[in-house]
Amino acid sequence: MLILGIETSCDETGVALYHTERGLLAHALFSQVAIHADYGGVVPELASRDHVRKLLPLIEQILAEAGLARADIEGIAYTAGPGLVGALMVGGAVAHALGFSMSIPVLGVHHMEGHLLAPMLEQNPPAFPFVALLVSGGHTQLVQVSGIGEYILLGESVDDAAGEAFDKTAKMLGLDYPGGPRVAALAEKGQAGRYRFPRPMTDRPGLDFSFSGLKTFTLNTVNAARAAGDLGDQTRADIALAFESAVVDTLAIKCKRALQLTGCKRLVIAGGVSANTRLRAGLETMTAKLGASVFYARPEFCTDNGAMIAYAGAQRLRAGQQDGDRIAAVPRWPLDTLPPLNQRCDDGLAGA
């Protein structure tokens, strides 16, 4: 079964072709970073307009790369949420228009389920069950995964997501958008030990996260250095390293607790922040001590992309799930409300 995947949840226009027997055939991504950089963050209306401009040309591009035609597509999966509602509507409208014209099934996919399943695209995919750390600009969650659609939320951020804290720290340090990768790059030049930042909510039981206090601590550190006339390049790098180390340690401590609580021996990390090399190294060290393994997607599939949506959609479309005639666009959508893979759902997964 050949599935077209469409991702338009935020500021990345992603498309991919996934075959349930042949695997990933082609994928393409257009990033809007240059469009939003002058504003220091994503402007929703500009994001929606650019999805309109880029989506159909990208679909034609990957069809040409795969040597296929539109008529070869047997199903379409698109991101139905969470995300920016206008951007979601662009992807949903294109998916349904194509599906209606071709008389093929269409399904709205949960964005974070796409991230969670992205490591399945690798040569050594994780087996079920596992614990998943979903860490991005909008989400920081620990989920127990028994199968596709079989999710138990173990913990999540009670305020800011880790990725959002990275972006806000980048602004404090005078770095450009997108902030996360720039903080990580600056941290590589930092000297360990000069600053010690707190590891929030690790001194109490539970698996929830909180990064707002760490963000405030970072701001106070930056302001103190500025007031002392000591906010030069090395100080900024030292602060970036202390901040990044605090986030990595916090995530590793909570992941360790989740593995011990569930008894799972496999940890999956997914989402944009999962591309962070210090985080990967920290989790590899932690899981090795527990006799467990950690899995993640290649960097290009950590950020938003069409391949993860095509894969997640392919599993559900093959099981008979589809939208029907209604476009699903759900800005807020709890992951643990998704139906299991074997539950037919002809009226759409989103319930909206």
TrEMBL record:
Signal peptide: none annotated. Its cofactor is Fe(2+). Its EC number is 2.3.1.234. InterPro entries: ATPase_NBD, Gcp-like_dom, KAE1/TsaD, TsaD. It comes from the Bacteria. Its main location: cytoplasm. GO terms for biological process: tRNA threonylcarbamoyladenosine modification. Keywords: Acyltransferase, Cytoplasm, Iron, Metal-binding, Transferase, tRNA processing. Binds 1 Fe(2+) ion per subunit. Required for the formation of a threonylcarbamoyl group on adenosine at position 37 (t(6)A37) in tRNAs that read codons beginning with adenine. Is involved in the transfer of the threonylcarbamoyl moiety of threonylcarbamoyl-AMP (TC-AMP) to the N6 group of A37, together with TsaE and TsaB. TsaD likely plays a direct catalytic role in this reaction. HAMAP family: TsaD. This is tRNA N6-adenosine threonylcarbamoyltransferase.
